[in-house]
Specification:
The chain folds into two domains: 37-139 and 279-301, Rossmann fold (3-Layer(aba) Sandwich); 142-275, Rossmann fold, CATH 3.40.50. Helix 6 (142-156) packs parallel to helix 7 (173-186). It has helices at 8-14, 18-21, 49-63, 80-92, 105-117, 142-156, 173-186, 203-215, 228-240, 261-266, 280-291, 312-319, 322-325, and strands at 37-43, 68-70, 74-75, 97-100, 122-125, 136-140, 161-167, 191-198, 222-225, 248-250, 273-274, 299-302, 306-307. The chain contains 13 helices and 13 strands. The longest helix is centred in the N-terminal third of the chain and has 15 residues, at 49-63. Strands 1, 2, 3, 4, 5, 6 and 12 form a seven-stranded parallel sheet that branches. Strands 8-7-9-10 form a four-stranded parallel sheet, with helices on both faces. The radius of gyration is 21 Å and the shape is elongated. It is an alpha/beta fold. Belongs to the bacterial solute-binding protein 2 family. Its main location: other. GO terms for molecular function: carbohydrate binding. This is Substrate-binding domain-containing protein.
């Protein structure tokens, strides 16, 4: 990466390494607000507990850097046009760096490209866009998590059975990968997905959809939800129908909060869930490198853990940030 005090030849030499190439795509930023680097974060929506927790964690980790100024996080409310406008506003404000959690990949691609063209370092968090101009992508392996969820379903239904699937936004890469991984894992095990429907990651939507499925009278052995919020929405519907305990539920997210998936496994509301790290800590660490002209990894894949009644307490303690976030 080219330092303001290094020669052009030094910059070229540094940019020849594969790892540094992404960082070299942007001009080195300089603090622009009282000696602070100004950072914008475009969030797809704040309605999901996962994203609300991500926001809190990002604010916490950003505060550990006195030379960072994180602007108010924008909420697109699951509307891609709104998010495009919010990203463009950050570009017009000439932020020093931009983080984007896209609502959908295609609509946000042009806006991210505009940020790249403006030489603003960009981190893509959790969901992809259809361009690789960004500096770093940070997220979990959604196919693997879906596959692990499918393996858990196979274990829960050794003689086969009927599954219903609550899906996120259909155009989102995490939804696509979580679906494919699950279906690949259950193939050949006499498990049938009898219903699947988009519930847009939201608890209320999942409750309504599950109520509709239950009203049909078909035998349901297990619910696979692409996140814990939808899983708990399904649990409400199942409980309301008087079927609690007869239908098992698998989720994804594993948040260490009182209303999250880890506690739900401990309480017997969910069969299992899988930790999907927010990436907030990694995003801030990557910002620190980018804004101080250090190379970063183009793709950072975060690990997962399966949460079971046996390990839930330990995992909750491992990921609990309530003492730091004041919640």
């Amino acid at each position: 990466m080219r330092s303001l005090r290094r020669s052009v030849l030094t910059a070229v030499a540094l940019c020849t390494t594969a790892v540094a190439a992404a960082a070299c795509a942007s001009n080195p930023p300089s603090p622009s607000d009282g000696g602070q680097f100004v950072i914008g974060y475009s969030q797809s929506n704040n309605a999901e507990p996962y994203r609300a927790q991500l926001n809190l964690q990002l604010q916490y980790f950003a505060k550990q850097h006195p030379d960072f100024k994180l602007l108010p996080i924008t909420d697109a409310h699951q509307d891609s046009a709104t998010q495009v406008s919010q990203v463009q506003t950050f570009i017009q404000q000439k932020v020093n760096a931009l983080i984007v959690s896209p609502n959908e990949p295609a609509p946000l691609t042009a806006a991210v490209q505009q940020a790249c063209d403006a030489k603003i370092p960009v981190i893509i968090l959790d969901r992809n866009v259809n361009t690789d101009c960004y500096d770093s992508f940070i997220g979990g392996d959604n196919y693997l998590i879906g596959k692990l969820a499918g393996e858990a379903a196979v274990q829960a239904l050794p003689n086969g059975g009927n599954v219903v699937e609550l899906r996120g936004i259909l155009s989102d890469h995490p939804q696509i990968d979580r679906d494919k991984g699950f279906r690949d894992a259950i193939a050949g095990h006499n498990i049938t997905i009898i219903e699947d429907q988009e519930a847009k990651w939201l608890k209320a939507n999942a409750t309504t959809v599950t109520q509709q499925w239950l009203s049909k009278g078909d035998k349901i052995d297990l619910v696979y939800a692409h996140n814990d919020d939808m899983a708990l929405g399904a649990q409400l519907a199942i409980q309301g129908a008087g079927k609690a305990g007869s239908i098992q539920i698998i989720g994804i997210d594993g948040l260490a909060i009182p209303t999250g998936g880890i506690r739900a496994v401990q309480n017997g509301q969910l069969l299992t869930t899988f930790v999907y790290p927010t990436g907030a800590e990694q995003a801030v660490a990557t910002l620190e490198k980018l804004l101080h002209q250090q190379p970063v990894e183009k793709k950072q894949v975060l690990d997962t853990l399966q949460v079971t009644p046996a390990n839930a307490a330990q995992i909750y303690q491992q990921y609990d940030m309530s003492d730091k976030l004041g919640k």
